[in-house]
Amino acid sequence: MSWAELYPWSAPEAGRPVIRQVYDQVRSAIHAGALRPGGRLPSSRDLALRLGVARASVVAAYDQLLAEGYAQGRTGSGTYVSQDLSGVLDVAAPTPAPAAAPPVVPQRARELAAFPTPSIEPQTFSNGRTLMDARAQDAWSVSTRRALRTLGPAHFGYSEPAGEPQLRAAIADYLRAARGVVCEAEQVIVTAGAQHAVDLAARLLLKPGDRVWLEDPGYANTWQALLAAGAEGHAVPVDRSGLVVQAGIAAAPDARAVFVTPSHQFPLGVAMSMGRRLELIAWARSAGAWIVEDDYASEFRYAGAPLASLQGLDGGERVIYVGTFNKSLFPGLRLGYLVAPKPLMASFAALRRLADRQPPTLTQAIALDFMESGQFAAHIRRRRLAYRAQRDALVEALRRRLDHVLEPDVPDQGMHLIAYLKDGRSDREVEARAAAKGVLARAISPLYHDAPPRQGLLLGFTGFPAKAMDAGVGRLAAALEA
Fold first, then answer.
1. Measured between alpha carbons, how far is 145 from 300 in angstroms, rounded to an integer?
2. Residue 286 burial (C-beta neighbours within 10 Å; 0-12, 13-18, 19+)
3. pTM metric for this prediction
4. Structural domains of the chain sorted by starting position, each given as residue range(s) with its CATH number in brackets
5. 90-94, 112-116, 348-352: which has the highest mean pLDDT?
6. What is the number of other CB atoms lying within 10 angstroms of the CB of residue 3?
7. How confident is the model at residue 95 (pLDDT cuts 50, 70, 90)?
8. Pairing of strands 406-409, 416-421
9. What does the pLDDT look like over 354-395, one tens digit per residue?
């Protein structure tokens, strides 16, 4: 790609030969690296118009550049910067600048730099991956074309920071019907995903030093977002009934907020019992605290009716509900939402505006069409069946090949399962061995904080067809048996 069309060419000065000044400008731009080898130069006619000179002057300057090896002509195509500039550029090492004291990196910046960056490479059993079947892909393409055909002034200017009103209304309708969420369209804030919503909630609800409950084990990105906000995290253990509320009260009764994944706890996959849900809401009301409910995989329940949302039980008073299309559709979409309690609606909208002004209007238009056409609901129904089959295929392969080593905990909901190690070996060691075989079997022990860690592997099943499970488990078996 050439950026010569955008280069700030300047008109020649009076008193100096025009041809020489044009030549010097192009040559200097090449030496500075602004015009890269192989990049196309403006046509002599265009450059003459830009500089306000005769075309013959530009042609003469180009001829000199061609003669010296700075440029090369292509018949019928134009003039280009030479691909090989070794004979004309000074390749001597630049004179080193005097040593200067390095800048002082703030403590918060050092802490953030230490956070691990997750791999984006798709590997067998990567978590959070999704599959869009051919019907969904075709329907998404149709929605995209429709959105492009109806582009209007709203798409070329600024729009609502909280999201397009029609999409927010569609999300509110969906949540009321599918999750029992108590909300109006005005309470919906469109985000870039669940992590963005969690970050907004952390920055809005907490000030540095505020105490907050976090699940132990729990989602690392939530911990990191809260630490980045300066909060004081308190690890609250999780058992088969979900977050142990009494342990949280004992550790930090005056906590400002609690961040939970009640429908499918990350990473253990357990669902919070109704008793614990009511207990948590009662504590939040008495303590004046907020609950952030991350319902990241609520669409995919494989047995029984969907679990009631905490937000619906609470009536929307103290629960900030978080959801995402990045799990229900595909991660590259980067579209999610939160439902704010009415007293916080304006505050969340203002914070959303300060973060990056507004969500992309075109993406919202496509998602709205996909929902209103009925394709979203149909896609979810098909994915539930497909993901359940993928889960079952993974469990069957694990039990057939690795029953002596792994004990899979089969979830009724979500996008991953945990396979606990039976023989006491380190899950971190297994993770490293599996990675060498092209398998992402994530160790769960690092996700524990104060609770005694269990040794197990987190295996995602939604991003890979059922027929791929046996081969993936075969590579995992090879790693375990090495």
1. 28
2. exposed
3. 0.84
4. 4-81 (1.10.10.10), 132-374 (3.40.640.10), 378-481 (3.90.1150.10)
5. 348-352
6. 12
7. low
8. antiparallel
9. 988 899 999 999 999 999 999 999 999 999 999 999 999 999
